Structure formats: structure tokens, C-alpha cells
Amino acid sequence: MEWGLREDLRDCVVAAAPYGGPIALLRNSRRDKTPGARPLLEIYSASGLLLASVPWKSGSLVHLGWTAGEDLLCIQEDGTVLVYNIFCEFQRHFSMGNEVLQNRVLEAQVFHTEFGTGVAILTGALRFSLATNIEDLKLRRLPEVPGLQKPPPCWAVLAQDRVTMVLLAMGQELFLLDNTSCSVLVRPSGTGCTRPRSRQRAVVLAWERQLMVVGHASESIRFVLDEDSFLVPELDGVRILSRSSHEFLHEIPAPNPCCPVPAEASQEIFRIASMAPGALLLEAQKEYEKESQKADEYLREIREQQLLPEAVGQCIEAAGYEHEPDTQKSLLRAASFGKCFLDKFPPEGFVRMCQDLRVLNAVRDYQIGIPLTFTQYKQLTIEVLLDRLVLRRLYPLAIRISEFLRLPEMQGVSRILAHWACYKVQQKDKSDEEVAQAINQKLGDAAGISYSDIATRAYDCGRAELAIKVGWWPGGGDAGWHCHPRVTPPSPPGQLLEYEPRSGEQVPLLLKMKRSKLALGKAIESGDTDLVYTVVLHLKNELNRGSFFMTLQNQPVALSLYRQFCRHQERETLKDLYNQDDNHQELGNLHVLGGYSQRVSGRIEGRVAALQSALDEFYKAKNDFAAKATEEQIKLLRLQRHLQEELDKPYLDLSLHDTVATLILDGHHKRAEQLYRDFRIPDKRYWWLKINALATRGDWEEMEKFSKSKKSPIGYLPFVEVAVKHHNRYEAKKYTPRVGPEQRVRALVLVGCVGDTRGTPRGGGTSSGELEQAAEAALERRSEAELGLVLARCEPGPGGDGLAERLGRARAQLLRK
């Protein structure tokens, strides 16, 4: 150990993180009672290298523990828990509640479950409380232990089937506390624990410089310790810390032919006088290097027993459980030697073991200080190991491992570079220019890096200018990164955020940095209207009204979108925008929409007033058509109000045509004539309106009088069509003679196809009289189209003398010509 510790560990508060994690040490906390003396909180790597230290200025410390993410939890006597990172940088704090504050904390433990990292405490009232996840703190008070008068000598937290319990010893009895009850275990079924791939239950005890491994059997293993030691339980063994050493005690399972396990390979190979296939293959390889013929003898013995594949597998597996690189190399050379004599041995296991051992040896180096075993490494996974290297700011090593294992950039190099950049922006001793230069040189166009996260971290650290700093200066560099072989071409000058391709990430950060105008430009460039609306509404709340409008004037796209928003949500604001631009046309349109936004019943003064305002704006805009139309609408509204009051019938909100038609339907012909003259309705339109209304009303006599009042501007075919539409053949026949020659055939066909309201309908057939007349008229006009129209309505007659045959012959003659 490199820490040079002078105090005994018993005089310090010690906590070591699992999986070869760091060691936290609070010195002078128990023995030194000098007034004013401050304990020193130190964090070391597993090899004893100091990572960070800080004087302890807070309250009385009860317990230290590590989270699964390697954050240090410092539990104080008043129930406050302080959280530090691996470099003694304060992160946050939380409290265990008022009850704990009143009763104080006597003892505490940090434990890990599938829910996360939890904290269990024993208060001065001798009651246990625990929280299973400090990220979602929910304190749970456990039942009282009967007869408990003082803190128990030993207790532990157990987690099983998503239930967290406390096991404690008091005298000769064990108590188990769960959520609802306290159970007494008089005869416990076991006093130890079973490790993975182990067939024996055992516990490890240490006291007074002695260490004992105790199991079910009467035998035990005793070790004499040279110094006071601290035990750290691991997945597959126990770490033993002392002032001068850091050792690892773990089980090597005994051979069992009925149930072989990979971890037995080491014992099978290195056992004295072992004749295992792996041991023989290892000896054969050593003799081969000596150029001895014994190599062939050993190899032949293995091959005769057909155990060469097993021998190669044993050497590969045994290499994983050895910590000395020389032994690893010897075993792997033996495995490689044996593979040469096998035809179909899969190479994946050998290659994977070589890769794993290179990674393990790299992190086991004392300067790195993560002494993982092979079992722990497989349980931890490579992704978590990279996270822990990043947490220790060992970025070059993490990148080399990622490249060596050929991990995808999103999981490896790019992710590590992003973490490095976030750390780089926190370095207060470097200028913004130096940091921006280093980041841009190293990151370049690396895939999957969120520059917005880097800029956010810079802004959170109080370096807003760094987030938008110029990106490249020639000739720069970053000491300490030379080991990374990645070469990135220099980036053009720009801003850190300019490298972020996602506008949805750029814009919120720019708003947070109070760069609203720049954010507006980025949002418009993205083409995302929702993003533009977000920035515009933010600007509206941030700026005064005048500045806000002036900002929008310089951004036509944003101004247009804001106008659309105001058209639906804030009409008054839209008026202000149009007034500012002297846009009288749009103001007039807005007054018209405002006048008709709500239905008016009874009084229409508000609508008329809105239209009058619109009329004034249209005149200012020099839009004569809109002004004239608005003026006539005002006139129509007033007339409709007068008609509604006089005739007691709803006329408001009808169009001019509907108003005229309604008056005719109600028999008010003179009023309809007055509207026709006042609003200068075109003659053709008025005649169409009147004949349709009279036909709907069934006033055929008035319709006949109207047809004779003067020459029809629309002709007389419409009279026939209206009558036919209402199934009145009799009235339709009245107007047939008055129809012009060019439309008479069509009129006769229409009359012949309808049943008479005064006679018997003809069903789907055609009246023969009208059809004969239509045929004569078509023959007289010698029109192929009219002949075809009549021919489609008649049926061939018997003997070939029918009307259809005559029309057919005449049509054929016309077609020949």
C-alpha cells in the first residue's frame, strides 16, 4: 500500500467500495480529542494512492459507505447524509427525517439491492429505520425488537425477493425484522454464506490480529495478521486491508469429478504431482521451449486419452484466475501450443480470454488501482468498468480499452470523449480559449457526441462564454493526451454549440444562457415551427412589448408564425402588430373577423360598428372593392334587422341572395323587387332566384305572370327545367313554344320524360307526342347531337317503321357527310 498510514485502522472510520473500488478514510476521528483538531477525510485507490482529501468540517460522523456508482455517503449523528464524489467534491445532502434527528444515529450501514443503494440506521431509541433507495428516499421504520436495552453487538441488512430485512444478534438468539414483524430464529439453519461456484458455507472473522475462516465442519483455517486489518466483502472473496498491504482471500474449490467447475482448473493444474490434462499440457509446452523430447511424451499421453481439448480449456480457464502476468502468459502459451494439434477447436474462448486479461492487467496496475478478479470483471461488465475509469478521469486508458475491444463509438470512444469534454470545461485554471481549443481538437466530428451537454456543463459552471467560444486556433495541444492516437483534422472557427446538429438541443440551452435572439435564428433555420413558437413565447415573456415587436420585425418567419398564433389566441395583440406596420388591409380584415367571431342575436350594433371600422381601414388601404363590399354588407345588415323586426322572422346572417329568396317564398314580392334594385342584383341572377323560389312555393300563376312581364334575360328553358324539377309537366309544356330553336329539342325531351302532376306519370318512358315534336325539330335542324339525344329516349318500333329507325337512318346520313 502506498498510503503511508501511521494510525491504526481501528482508530479511523474506513469504507471500501466493492469490485476493487476506492477506500475512504476519516483520520483522527476517535482517538484525537484535541480542541480545534479537524479530522481529515481522504480517498485512496485500492493500491493506496491518494485521490483526494478534504478537512472534515461537518458534524459528528457515524458511518462511511459507498453507493453502486462510487459516490461516498457520510452518515452523521444528526441523520444528515452528505454525498461526495470520488475526488471529495461535495455533491448534495439529504436528511433521514425529524425522528432520526431527535433520537440521533447510533449505528448505520450502507447496503445495495436491486432498487439501488440503501441506508439502514439504528437510532438512540434502539429502533431500526431504512431506505432502500437514496435516489427516491422513502424512510421505513421497522418493528421494535423486544427486550433490546442496548445496541446489538452485530446486525446486518438482508435483501431477498424484493424484501429488505434486518438480521441482528442479541445474546444467543437471532432476530429477523421485516416490514411488519420481528421474528426470533432460535435455531438458524445456517451461519454463513455461499459464494458463487462454492460448495461450502463459510464466514471470515478478524479480531486481535487474527483471521479465521469458519464453516459447518469442526475444522477452521487460522491466519496470523501482522497488523490491524479491515475486511471488505467481495463477490468471490474477502479483501484484507492493513497499513502496509492489501490482500485478497478467496476459495479454490476442491476437485469434484461429478461436478467440474471452471475455477477448479487452477487447482487441477498446479496441484503437486497433478496428472490433469492441463498440467501435462503445461509441462509439455515448457519442455518444448527447452527443445526436449519429453514434450512429445507428455503430448502423446494427453492425445492417447483424447483429453487434449479439455487440457486446452483448463489452461485457458486457469489463466483467467491467475493474477501474475507471467503465470497467465505461461498458461496461455500452453493453450496455444495445444491448439496446434487440434483440428476444430473454436478460437473464440482463447481470444476472449486474452482480451479480458489485457484489460484486467491494465486496471490492476498500482497506478490505476482497480484490483478486479476475473469473476468480478464478468459480473461488473466492460461498460461499467469503462464508467469507473471515466469516473476516475482515466480517459486515455478508457479510450485505449474501447479501441482494443473494438466497441461501437457510441458506447466507447465518443461517450468517453464527451465525458472528458464535460470535465474539461470545469477546469478553472485554464482560460476559455485553451479549453475550447482542446475540446475542438480532440472531439472534431466524432459520432454521437452531444455538444449541447458539454455547453450546458460549461454554463452550469459559470462559463457562459465558453459555451459559444471560437472553436479552433492552430498550434494548440493538450498535455496528458498524447497517448491517444486519434488524429482529428482542425475544425473551422465556430461555436461549441455550432457542432450540435440537433436544433432541439441547441435552442433550449441558448434560451437558458439568455441568448434568445441567437436561439430564434437557430429555431428558424431548423424549420421546426414548434421550436420557433417556443422561442417566440419566451421572448414575449422576457422582453418589453416594444423590443419584442422590433425583434420580430427582423425575423419575417417568426413574425408570420406569431401572427398566426395571435389570430387564434390574442386578437388585440395582432391589432397592435398591424398598427405598428400601418397594415390597414389586414386591420380591416381583422375587424371583419372580429365582427363575425360571435353570433349576434337581436342587436347588431357591435357587428355594424366592427364593419364600420373595417370600412375605414379599407379606405385607408385604398381597397375600393373591399370598401364597397363592406359598405353594402352594413346596408344589408340594417335592412335585415328592419325586416326581422317588421315581419317577425329571422333574416339576420342571411346572404343577399338568401334574403331575396326568402322574401319571395314568403310572398313579399315588392320587398324582393326593392332589394333587387337597391343592391343592383344582375338581371339573370334575379330571374333565376325568383323562378326557383316561385316553383318551390308552387306559385305557378305568379311564375307565368313573371315570365310575361318582360323578355326573359335567361331564356325560357330554365322555366321548363324548374317545372320539370318539381314534376309539373303541365306547366313545363306552357313554356316549350317560347323556347328558342337551339334549345327546343332539349325542352321537348325534358317535358316528355316527366310525369304530370295533374295526370298519370309515365314512369321511366317518354311521352310520344313531345318525342315526335323533338324528333321533327332535330331533323329540321339536322343536328347530330340533338338526334342522338332524342334517339336515347325512344325505343325501336315494330317492322322497322319506328321513330328510332328513322332517327337512326338520319343520323347515319349526317355522319357519312
Automatic annotation (TrEMBL):
GO CC, one annotated term: HOPS complex
Subcellular location: Late endosome membrane; Lysosome membrane
Keywords: Coiled coil, Endosome, Lysosome, Membrane, Protein transport, Transport
Domain Vps16 N-terminal: 1-181, 200-352
GO molecular function, one term: actin binding
Example GO BP: vacuole fusion, non-autophagic
Entry similarity comment: Belongs to the VPS16 family.
Full protein name: Vacuolar protein sorting-associated protein 16 homolog
Species this protein is from: Lonchura striata
